[in-house]
Amino acid sequence: MGDSVACADILKFKVLAKCSRSRARVAELRIPHAVLQTPIFMPVGTKGTMKGLTPKQLERCGCRMMLSNSYHLAETPGMEVLQKAGDLHNFMKWNNGLLTDSGGFQMVSLAKLTKLDEDGVEFQSPYTGAKMTVTPEYSMQVQNTIGADIMMQLDDVVKTTGEDDRMKDAMYRTIRWLDRCIAAHKRTDHQILFPIVQGGLNFEYRTICAEEMVKRNMQGYAIGGLSGGEPKDQFWPIVKHTAHLLPYNKPRYLMGVGFTLDLIVSVALGCDMFDCVFPTRTARFGIALVPTGQLNLKHSKFKNDFRKIDDECDCQTCQNHTRSYIHHFVTQHAVFASLITIHNVTHHMKLMAKVRESILKDRFPEFVDGYINSQVKRSSTPKWVIDALASVNINIKDHKSTAAASAAVVDDVVDDVATDVVDFGGGGDVVCDGEKCAADGNLTTANCGDSDRK
Ligand SMILES: [Zn+2]
What we know:
CATH architecture: Alpha-Beta Barrel
CATH topology: TIM Barrel
Radius of gyration: 21 Å
Bound molecules: zinc ion
Largest sheet: 9 strands, parallel
Structural class: alpha/beta
CATH class: Alpha Beta
Distance between the termini: 27 Å
Number of domains: 1
Number of helices: 17
Helix content: 25-40%
Strand content: 15-25%
Strand order of the largest sheet: 11-10-6-5-4-15-14-13-12
């Protein structure tokens, strides 16, 4: 491929500020439908909207870029309807940033995979039962019809915990499929194609893959195949290694990452864009995200709690409703999910805004230290967090000793979570044990791996 330009130059990325210690940076990202600042979190709206939220409500949460799943859109409303509407932006009246996945992973996770070879992925549709083959060309055709600002290449996704040989094959196949996607992309003057660096937990494979993709001179790069259940002490070195191989002056998108600590660490390691179903899916289980952790609003202690979910939040839910009110119909009425979704999406938008602000003021290390202190209660600061941050010159304290002092303040969080059955989609139900998750090195409740996106 040499240095050929694969796409018209319709993405502009300008680094505005860089943390003087870590690799965190703030940049302006210009894409056809939006001017954004990174680091950015993109909520996932499976079928062209967040479950339970209108596009306008999503905009009011401060969201200017969202992700949609090609596969679901291809099934419903279908390509014909989207063509008639013009594109998905028009169809959903969303004049903001949109990113679509290739459809490959969705199919593999949701459907019965029947065959995977050089041509593409063959699977059985869970909607119709019919066999379908998704090739790089078909994925581009679908994504060109949807018309999102950023499209993802079809990649060969393997579990990071899988066999090494399979990982290597998948990495090389992903490079070959990228070339087919580049050749099949018909709207280079309107849509940007991101490649996905694969290679599992193998540094050498990640290096080969990143170098090959950088040769294609793409406008941005994604790091894929992570957050699929690999240990955190293997996750962060791969993120750091891979991000560093990618060009400084282009956006780096870490796929499937959305737990708050993971976001903050990955920003420190040099990543700019993130997506995850976590804030929206967890809302549907009655769990609200707050600066000190999480509130399980199903818990009976909220029956007489007339405070807002979060005193400092000005989202529509917090402006109008109390914990008690939401507890009153939590899990019994779809409205509760919308109310918590509004709050959780706003929470993630504000978190990223605070991250950006701290980088702009060159106070990111102080922000990280303060944030982790506010989240830690009984468990000590996870070792992987300390190690990952130390590797980029952010030395945070182990907050275990100070955690007891703040326990009174955060009495209503985290410990309520107990054991919940959390449907993470794709992989079926998993039992999430909040304490066990904390022991694994994470402060999130539903920290069971997000099998919906990788
Ligand atoms: Zn709120």
